[in-house]
Design a protein that fits this description.
Length: 161
């Protein structure tokens, strides 16, 4: 079985991630982030960045040599924070970064631009709708897994069913 990436091994890896989540019973996004980092063999660092509150995106992931850096817009809503992080984890677990053009060329041409800004600019326009759709579905599935393992129903579920 292959997804938009066309790689069966990615699908098997993602299925193994979901199996682990059910087995371990993740009840919050931080547990899922830690498991995802272990799963991909590279740290996943989540940072809230105030500059994103002025941008039309809620978050993005920059895949760096030694870590995946997930930057999200500051929010008071834990539900929204978890969903944005889940979306970005979807990109990481589905290895979407392997299908985006290399940012090295841009860094060579404009060396004074911070790497995360180059990655952000590339990510905005380079993933097809299939990649964004796949990341949204991943975030939905992760939210469901977390909700099933919480000791209490979430406020989101109480409002939206």
């Amino acid at each position: 079985m292959t997804g938009p990436t066309g790689h069966g091994d990615v699908s098997a890896s993602v299925r193994a991630f979901w199996t682990r989540g059910e087995r371990e019973g993740w009840s919050d996004i931080d547990q899922a982030v830690a498991a995802a980092a272990d799963h991909v063999g590279k740290p996943i660092v989540v940072r809230e960045e105030s500059f994103l509150s002025e941008e039309p995106v809620c978050g993005f992931v920059a895949t760096l040599e030694h870590q995946h850096l997930v930057m999200i817009s500051p929010t008071a809503s834990e539900t929204f924070r978890a969903f944005v992080i889940g979306h970005e984890l979807g990109h990481v677990l589905h290895r979407h970064q392997e299908h985006a053009p290399q940012s090295a060329y841009v860094r060579d041409v404009i060396p004074d631009v911070p790497e995360y800004k180059v990655e952000r600019a590339l990510a905005r326009g380079m993933f097809t709708n299939d990649y964004e759709h796949q990341a949204e579905l991943f975030a939905d599935q992760l939210a469901g897994l977390i909700r099933r393992h919480r000791g209490r129903p979430s406020a989101f579920r109480g409002v939206f069913g």
